[in-house]
Amino acid sequence: MHKSSGLAINGAFLHRDAYPEGRVASEYLRAFQSLKKQQRYYEILADLEVLLTEDSYTDVPGLTARYEQKGKLPRPVWQQTQLPMMAKNRLLLNFCNIGPIFRSHAVGFIHDVNVYESPQSYSKPYVLYTKFLNAMMGKHYKRIYTVSQYSADALVEKGVVKRENIRVIHNGVDHADRTPTDERILSEHGLKKNGYVLGLSNSYKHKNMGVVMDCFSKMARPQHHVSMPLVLFGPDMKETFQDEGIEPSNQVVFTGRVSEGERRALYENALCFVFPSKHEGFGLPPVEAMRLGCPVIASRCASIPEVCGEAAMYADADDVSSWSAAILEHAENSVLRSKNSALGIAQAAQYTWETAARHLLDDLLEIR
């Protein structure tokens, strides 16, 4: 057995702007920080080092791990050439779907199967590149981790990894209440408690936001019209959706990117959170909403029922009337809204980053 002297982290995600897989990596590193004090995990975490290129990066607040920077190659090339040498004989942990493909003393996360199930959401070169990386990681790595049983089953079915070499570790969601609420965003957009519906502003085809937007267009769907604002937070604005053939009505409010405190305020004051996605590896946003007491309406697709359980109200992914009815039911029934809020809080409580980190480290101790 290859006995590792410790753990090295592929830190390439710290060179990028915030994105979902990068958030997951940062939360694991924060959890490692607290677990390092426990004797069981001390040895594997004592020499923890985050490996980076010589480009600028944003570190994880409060993390005392060492950062090593070496190499000025473009990151895709750096990860295949310089990174394995920097890791030396340590077990290399790759959190964000990408890692050196010929290194065997490594483990990695593949978070979803979107490039297989919704290739139209991405460019053809990206789909081909990601499928190639997935296949090579699945072939060479000691372990592949993913974030739901749904994704694990799909990766096995697609031939990416053998069943015995994949493990499921659900994400945590307790980061959602770490930052104090910043309610200034509500007054900025004229929003009142329970007076708007909240959603994610993402124009990828598999996110399926058009079906919900139709509920807020009196002209497009007068018989299913919801007469309150639909507030969408995230990177995509009105023009991005228009480029995808979706015409948002004037009831749709685009906030753009928001801070942690602003996002918390939006969740805590929304009537409900809508999540019509068709393909998800885990689906953090609806569980974040649950954590903060916001009732969730979601599609019964992919990993969503596994993760949200019976705490969400489900709507038919492609049926505007189904979404409209579910939203109006929450608007008209405060008892239902309170019930679903409580169910969501209880459901989300099981997903913590410390639990996820323990599961990961326990497995790494077996294989290193």
Describe this structure in words.
- With 368 residues, this protein is of the alpha/beta class.
- It has 15 helices and 13 strands.
- Strands 3-2-1-4-5-6-7 form a seven-stranded parallel β-sheet. It has a six-stranded parallel β-sheet with strand order 10-9-8-11-12-13, with helices on both faces.
- Helix 8 links the parallel strand 8 and strand 9.
- Helix 1 crosses helix 15 and helix 11 packs across helix 14 (334-348).
- The longest helix is centred in the middle third of the chain and has 17 residues, at 124-140.
- It is globular.
- The mean pLDDT is 94.
Strand content bin: 5-15%
- H and E order: EHHEEHEEHHEHEHEHEHEHEHEHEHHH
Which shape, going by the Cα principal axes? globular
* CATH topology description of the largest domain: Rossmann fold
